Structures are given as structure tokens and as C-alpha cells.
Amino acid sequence: MMRIGVDVGGTKIEALALDDAGQELARYRVDTPRGDYDGTLAAIAGLVHRLEAEAGAMGTVGAGIPGSVRRANGLVKNANSTWLNGRPLPVDLSRLLGREVRVANDANCLAVSEATDGAARGFSVVFGVILGTGCGGGVAFHGQVHAGPNGVGGEWGHNPLPWAKPDEMPGPLCYCGKHGCMEMWLSGTAIARDFLEVTGKSLTTREIAALEATGAVQAVAAFERHLDRLGRGLAQVVNVLDPDVIVFGGGVSRVGRLYEGLPERVRPYVFGGEFDTPLVPAMYGDSSGVRGAAWLWPHA
């Protein structure tokens, strides 16, 4: 049995093939045809056909997207790759490839990947966090996606930052049209914006992290603010879902002190003051999304 996963990103589309044991058989990527829906469909199909030609076999296909699919009509919504919004992506891909294609949010794919054979293996309820260009979240129950009837299971990034302080209100304007979303406070992009506003210095998040590692005062302070906000955001998840484990992906997840300093930031905001949830980096890193897309077919 071969499973094919496709990760549809804003700048690149990546596809890989896994055997039944989860071993990678092949992987390819192409640039995303930005703004071009038909071109995106063709790019996905081309990658699938290339993998199958190399393997000499057909496989199941799953795709992770930076959005979700409406259960009522099968149309994509909430995608920051905006040319996908309002389009019947699952139907069009299924027709193009001549088989059912399962489509899920990319953060849900991360949760599925890590629950299946990654850092969250053996845990029943997994909350996956992506802290990168944006701030995504996904939920897996027993290794399978929980999207919910509205297709937004795990979308914590578009809730307001909880227990906001006076200088955090009303918060930055988010692309979703609301102010103060956690995405505007917790993403890698948000760290750079916050650093610029406080210090007047324009640095990338990677540069700020490098400075923080040297003990530079302003960079340390920036990550202290980030940890405080992240702790409040995760406490809200614990109060609602109380997952068995929280798995982190995205560029910010590579900052080591995040795992050391975060529990003490979460605990005061959890109802009852107890927080024993494991916090772990994704075993497969940037590959978790595309692997999780392949595992959307767990029993095929």
C-alpha cells in the first residue's frame, strides 16, 4: 500500500509517497502557482503522477491546505492562499486524479502525522500548534482529524488573545478583519512586528532568536513577552480541550527555551492552576504536514 501526501503552501507545493510502514519512498516539490487555481490543481496532479510513475503503482492521496473545507458544500474557506477560497478543491482534485482525494487543514495534518508515528504517538488527544508565518492549530483524536461540523476544529489563532493587558488592546488588525487575534501576537511574523514596535529596530524573527541566545536584553525581553502571550493562549486551549499532549511545528518551535519557560507561563491561567501536559517539538519538523496529509488514509 502506498500513500501520497501533498502539502499545498503559499510558496511551494510538496508531495511525498509513504509505504505502509511510513517509510518515505520519494519526495518532490514545485513552486506554487500563486493566484492561479487551475495551475495549482495541475501542479498537484503533476506531482502525484510523478510519484506514481517512479513507484510503478497508484496510491491514495491526501492534501493539506492552509484553510479548511466547508462540510455543507465542499468549498474551501479561510485559506490565506486566497485563490483557493470558494473553490471545490476536493471535488476538482478527485475528478482530475480519478479517485477520492481527502483534504484537511495543514495544522490538522501536523497533528495526525505526529499522532500516527511521531512525537505524539500513543496519545489519544493531540493538539498541534504551528508557529510560523501564521499561527495555526489542529486536533487529532486517536490519530484522525477532528475538523468539526464547521471545519474549524483547532483554529485557535483566530480567537482573541486571552487576558489581554491594557497595552495589548484592541490589538493589531488581522487579515480576517478582526483585531487582536492570537495569530497577530504569536506567529513568527508577530514577534518581529512586536520587536520593531518596542525597539524601533527591524529584524527578522531568526535574527531576534539569535540575539536572544546571546543574552541581548531587548531580544530576551521580546521572547519573554512572546512566552507570556503563548502561555495565556495555550491555557485557553487546556481549559477547553485539555489535550494529552501539545506538539509544536513551524519556525518558532525551534527556539529551545520555549519548552523550558512555557509551562510556568501556562499554569497560572489554567483553571485550578494545574498544568502537566507534555510540550514537544514535532518529530518530523517541516515534513509533518505533508506526512499527515498522506496519513489522512489511515486504514486504506
Description:
The protein has helices spanning 37-55, 89-97, 106-117, 183-186, 188-199, 205-213, 217-240, 257-266, 288-294; strands at residues 3-8, 12-18, 24-31, 60-65, 68-69, 76-77, 101-105, 125-131, 135-141, 144-145, 245-249, 279-281. With 300 residues, it is of the alpha/beta class. It has two domains: 3-110 and 286-294, Nucleotidyltransferase, domain 5, CATH 3.30.420.40; 122-282, ATPase, nucleotide binding domain (Nucleotidyltransferase, domain 5, 2-Layer Sandwich), CATH 3.30.420. Strands 3-2-1-4-7 form a five-stranded mixed β-sheet. A hairpin with a 3-residue loop joins strand 8 (125-131) and strand 9. Helix 1 packs across helix 2 (89-97), helix 3 (106-117) packs across helix 9 and helix 7 (217-240) packs across helix 8. The mean pLDDT is 94.
Largest sheet: 5 strands, mixed
CATH topology name of the largest domain, in short, is: Nucleotidyltransferase, domain 5
**Widest sheet: strand ordering:** 3-2-1-4-7
* C-alpha Rg (nearest Å): 19 Å
- Mean pLDDT across all amino acids: 94
End-to-end distance:
8 Å
Q: So how many helices? A: 9
What CATH first level of the largest domain would be assigned?
A: Alpha Beta
In CATH, what is the homologous superfamily of the largest domain? ATPase, nucleotide binding domain
Shape descriptor reads globular
Count of the domains: 2
User: How is the quaternary structure best described?
Assistant: single chain
Taken in chain order, the helices and strands follow as EEEHEEEHEHEEEHHHHEHEH
Q: Count all strands and give the number.
A: 12
The helix content, as a percent range, equals 25-40%
Helix and strand content put the structural class at: alpha/beta
Residue fraction in strands: 15-25%
Low-confidence stretches: none
What is the annotated CATH architecture of the largest domain? 2-Layer Sandwich
